[in-house]
Write a structure and sequence with these properties.
Low-confidence stretches: 1-10, 321-326, 329-333, 371-380
Strand content: 5-15%
Number of strands: 5
Structural class: alpha+beta
Largest sheet: 5 strands, mixed
Shape: rod-shaped
Order of helices and strands: HHHHHHHHHHEHEEHEEH
Strand order of the largest sheet: 1-2-3-5-4
Number of helices: 13
Helix content: 55-70%
Radius of gyration: 33 Å
Oligomer: single chain
Mean pLDDT: 76
């Protein structure tokens, strides 16, 4: 079923095609007065029908068929070169299903042959060649437009499916890390807490025993640090700059204008923080393409007051139901829950609000961790 309003590729630029109606004026100036009046009136009707085509509504196909009818009369009655105006119908027919595309294409092919025969152009090959472009424009070009449109739609769906698979993979990675944190480090950290409490109680009574307990705490803490490094090293590092390029390709395929602000190549964050920010960007970009109906999106990275802030803002339809923290309610999907859990691992946050352009704005924040690269390298 067709929607009442259809997409309009090119927008107002399509009105530049109205310049094609300058050619009939040249032909009309060469006709006798009565023929010129008839041709002018019919050309005006064709022009009115084309303006209806440009409105891109449910009657667009009917307007295009009416245009072909008017062009056929002009070609038979006045000049075969009026067939060139049929180019203006190619885009409309190219967005129709095959059952509605094939009949006008076949009919126009027969029309070209009939007009050439009536005008006696079969005896003059140079004149006959002049009819090949309009024949191509209606009989072949719409099929190419349709194939191109289907390829573009397929590319967008494949891109969305790939993003979904990557998101599922990152969620599985997050669950693995969370599970290993719980299983591997949970017992160790509990042991450290108990030993520290015991040392605090012994400090005033038995300093030597308290020192032994704290030495054991230090050894256990080193073991826990080693386990944490091993766990984090098993997580696949994702560069934020790479994810920005992925978002650029995704938005380009979906026709969303992208604006970038900030230095994504060298964010002031450890690899773990950058990877989780990149995963958040991937999730947010996918949501913009799949759910927002946006035409423009801004991705900004900024450091402020010890926090690294990543914002993805669009001009789409915004969010539906929201929870207390500004994020969509649980009914909107599990992606937000996964983002929040992932950020909790590094004491990060995520918040959503209405953007300045009326759409959605999602902001991820993580702490900026400044480390001594030499010490970190030595301890790894």
């Amino acid at each position: 079923m067709k929607s009442e309003e259809r997409s309009a590729p090119g927008g107002k630029w399509n009105y530049l095609f109205l310049l094609n109606f300058a050619f009939p004026v040249v032909f009309l100036l060469q006709e006798p007065p009565r023929a010129a009046a008839f041709g002018g009136a019919l050309t005006a009707v064709v022009l009115a029908l084309y303006l209806g085509v440009l409105r891109r509504n449910a009657r667009e196909y009917a307007y295009a068929l009416g245009m072909l009818g008017g062009i056929a009369v002009l070609a038979f009655a006045l000049n075969p070169m009026y067939l060139y105006l049929a180019f203006l119908c190619a885009d409309t027919f190219g967005r129709e299903p095959l059952r509605r595309l094939a009949p006008p294409a076949a009919a126009f092919g027969a029309l070209v042959v009939a007009v050439a025969g009536t005008a006696g152009w079969f005896a003059t090959p140079t004149l006959l060649v002049a009819l090949l472009p309009p024949a191509f424009g209606v009989c072949v070009l719409p099929f190419l437009i349709r194939a191109s449109s289907r390829y573009r739609d397929m590319a967008i769906r494949l891109e969305a499916a790939q993003s979904q698979l990557e998101r599922l993979a990152s969620d599985a990675e997050r669950r693995r890390i969370a599970g290993e944190l719980h299983d591997t480090l949970g017992h160790t950290l509990t042991f450290i807490a108990l030993k520290a409490e015991l040392a605090a109680k012994l400090a005033a009574k038995d300093a030597r025993r308290a020192a032994e307990e704290m030495e054991e705490v230090r050894g256990t803490a080193r073991t826990a640090l080693k386990q944490m490094r091993e766990l984090v090293s098993g997580m696949r590092y994702v560069r934020l700059a790479d994810e920005v390029e992925h978002a650029r390709s995704l938005f380009a395929a979906a026709g969303v204008e992208l604006t970038l602000e900030g230095d994504f190549a060298a964010p002031p964050a450890p690899s773990l923080h950058e990877t989780i920010l990149a995963m958040g960007l991937r999730e947010a970009a996918t949501n913009v393409v799949r759910h927002s109906a946006a035409t423009a999106c801004r991705i900004a990275l900024a450091a402020d007051e010890g926090r690294l802030r990543l914002t993805i803002a669009d001009d789409g339809v915004g969010f539906g139901g929201k929870a207390a923290d500004g994020l969509p309610s649980a009914g909107a999907g599990t992606g937000w829950v996964a983002m929040k859990e992932r950020l909790q691992l590094i004491e990060g946050t995520v918040f959503a609000e209405r953007s300045a352009t009326g759409g959605a704005a999602v902001t991820f924040e993580v702490p900026i961790v400044v480390r001594d690269a030499g010490k970190e390298e030595a301890g790894a």
